[in-house]
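Q:
My hope is that you can spare some time for a protein that puzzles me. I hope you can help me see how the letters and the tokens relate. Thank you; the sequence and its tokens follow:
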Amino acid sequence: MTAPTPLIAGNWKMNGLAASLDEARAVAAGLGGLGDARVAICPPATLIDRLRQAIGGGPVLLGGQDCRAEASGAFTGDLSAEMLADAGASLVILGHSERRAGHGETDALVAAKVGAALRAGLEPIVCVGETLEQRQAGEALAVVTGQVRGSLPPELAGRRFAVAYEPVWAIGTGLTPTTAEIEEMHAAVRATLREMFGAAGETAPILYGGSVKPSNAAEILHAAEVGGALVGGASLKAADFLGIIQGL
């Protein structure tokens, strides 16, 4: 059975102007000795094409941060998966907690967007995670495995995708779950993927996200069933992002 290929993806969120291209160039120049591991940067959509021109053909993959389920139409301000692919993206983050909370995205909508990503040839990174209140109420495992079941459509079977576990209470707060808590959740996600996709559920990397930084990356990345990381703020600076990548 093929083991998951590690993936480290940087989510720039609503950050990045033309000057940020230099940070991406520095990441591309600093990569080496990763073996089969993959590295991606998901900048604002305004920078995808310029990043493609700056580092295209190199070791860094490019991704989008969201897409609309429809391929085209009267949806002012939205972007289709096809548009992201046309700009040079090969991956897309879907269902991030900031989208779920701030834009009311449901599991069903996330699943529809996953279908759109597959339609356009993009690899989806599907985010799941519990709030602090849900964890304190003992609901974390049920919430997260429920999001996995609801957000991953059957057509993912046999396709390349990743799941990113991001405890909402750890994103941007400096708080990080214990290694045991991370391993417990990643094991539950893996069991759910096996239940849904059989042997194919073994090959999707399960990324951890939530206050990942160079100082804790190695410990997190070597925890059981952690197949990489979805990195927020620390991916904006090449030195920090490379420090995390080196934790592999």
Summary: The first strand starts at residue 7 and ends at 11. The chain has one domain: 63-68+77-245. The chain has a mean pLDDT of 95. The chain has ten helices and eight strands.
